[in-house]
Amino acid sequence: MNHCSRILVVDDDAGGRRLTRATLTKAGFHVIEAADGQQALDAMCSELPDLVLMDVSMPVMDGFTACAELRRLPGGGRVPVVMMTGLEDVQSIDRAFEAGATDFITKPINWTILAHRVRYMLRASAAINDLNQNQRRLSNAQRIGVMGDWEWDVRHDHIIPSEQAWRIFGRDPATGTIGFDGFMSTAHPEDLDRLRLAFERAIDGGDAFAIDHRIAHRDGTLRHVHQQVEVIERDAAGRALRLAGAVHDITRHKDAEEQIRMLAYYDPLTGLPNRLLFTEQLKRAIALAEQDQRKIAIMFVDLDNFKRVNDTLGHGAGDELLRAVSARLAGLLRVRDSVARHATEVDDSSIARLGGDEFIVLLSDLKRSADAASVARRLVAALAEPILIQHKEIFVGGSLGVAIYPDDGTDADTLLMNADTAMYRAKEAGRGRFQFYNRSMNERALDRLMMESMLRRALERDEFVLHFQPRVDVRSGMIVGAEALIRWMHPERGLILPGEFIPLVEDSGLVIRLGEWVIDAACRQNAAWHAAGLPVIPVAVNLASTHLRERGLPDLVARAIRRHALPASGLEIEVTESILLVEPELSLEIATRLESMGVRLSIDDFGTGYSSLSYLKRLPINSLKIDRSFVRDLATDPDDAAIITAIIAMAHGLKLKVVAEGVETQAQLAFLRARGCDEYQGFLMSRPLEGPAFARLFEDRRHGSLSLSAV
Fold first, then answer.
1. Does 273 sit behind a cis peptide bond, omega within 30 degrees of 0 on the bond before it?
2. 296 Cβ partners below 8 Å, 6+ apart?
3. What is the phi/psi pair of residue 271, to 5°?
4. pLDDT (0 to 100) of residue 234
5. Cβ proximity of 401 and 437 under 8 Å
6. Residue 415 near residue 297, CB atoms below 8 Å
7. d(Cα 571, Cα 575) in Å, to the nearest integer?
8. Please, are residues 248 and 146 in contact by the beta-carbon 8 Å criterion?
9. Closest CA to 57 of 6, 117, 13
10. φ, ψ at 467 (rounded to 5°)
11. Position with higher pLDDT, 587 vs 418
12. Residue 51, strand partner residues
């Protein structure tokens, strides 16, 4: 230190400066001289010295003023200043310390010890500067890491927290010290006993401990902290005399943990517990029910018309519907039905969302099966009530399956599976109802599973066939088209109608593939009829609404037409009204491409969905098909008759043909003819026929071998 330390000597006595310079230079210091305070400040502005020896009485600027000004310079607070004053000048010594002096030397100076005094002052200054720097680093580290420290003198009950610790505890750092009771008052009331007990054990001879607890700030905010506490001094009996602690604000960490927990255990759309959390709840409920010899009920809830709403109004409306249903179901369930009260880490809810439109309900502490039936009845009734979505009243409905522990299973997986099986049985029985599980349902569920597996192989094995129902001109009675209707020629069960397997097709994701097969098969059959000498007629293929949003559909249709050398007029695409509301621009683009190829487009089951007439007139469609539900009762129901009349008038106003489905009687046909309906199809003319039988009927009608009155 001596060989590089710069000493500034400030004294108006030139002789005194020379003696001081000689003494310090000999000791290895680098000396700078100044004759007064102003010269000293000028020298210090370019480079601060390591130590200043300053005379008190000088012209221009005295030592007191110069010392005070030095302290105002950047870094000047770290430079030790030693004032040189007379031995008896006590007043000057006091004033020197007030001006910021570090120490003083009395005149006359003892030259033999001056160098030693300077070395001591430099070492002391370096130590103080290092200490201050370390304190700043510690303070910055604690501030950045949201940490603090404290020390507790147990005998005198003085706790001295660091500045950052005060902030973490939500108190003013100016308080300085605090007693143990005041320290404990910062803790959340619910954590107070646990925290106090930990301290008492440490004082009574225990070791270090770590604890997480909450801090309640005076403004009402809560913080989570982690405290690490050690005993640093004990008495002879081992009782703690002093404790030291480090406190770390872990609120962000706790918030992140809670977010991760929410993502892991809760459905982000509805806020309900998800399958993982519900399964844990169910396992705990089973364990408690086994211990207390009680019953519990599992209810599997599935919405009946969710897919239709989702396809018709879009996924945004579907999400809104799921949130509304969740709130409605949760509102009906009583808190005492929930197993969550047995586990503090889960939400007080007895309902969970498993995914899609499936919900699961848990009823614990069940007294009798009739209680489960009562709740199930209320849930089904609640789902039957309309829900307002996008300013529209939606009737969605729901089916519900119930399984009882231990009657229907003693583990979570079995209960969930059996409740799911009972729910499917409720749907098969007509939907909008609930069904208790019974063992015979497993056979049906297994049959459904086997059919689903066989269905996936049916396309590969070419087990599907098309039957064709004639479309007849109302005026002339001539066959002018056909609708292709799919059947499954099951290798064991024989011919299966679409009502039995189309829901499985939708569930298994085969809708698009099956639609592609139907398009190709219809074109192939129409081309075969034409090759046999029959005129080309439009054969309608009924596609799912999602298919008209497949950008590859026009290319698929074009390939099928080319492959079978069929005129484009020989194919007609039927879709439901739902295309009018979901991605209308994309549907319009695809429909326009089909129309430009010469392929016809018609709206099936018109009047049963959600129509937008402003969009309907933009679509390049040729016809509307009146749903059979209106035709069936038109002779007895004035409302159905009025609806049909209105549809025909509207369609003709838009220059569209009207086709009535499900015509079975001459009275229905007479009504339609009187209202100007263009075409019909139904059992009055014929049931759906295989390709050859349809060709014979078509040929017979062409040559007039059948009269209209004879069919």
1. no
2. 285, 286, 289, 339, 362, 363, 364, 365, 366, 404, 405
3. 80, 0
4. 87
5. yes
6. no
7. 13
8. yes
9. 13
10. -110, 155
11. 418
12. 7
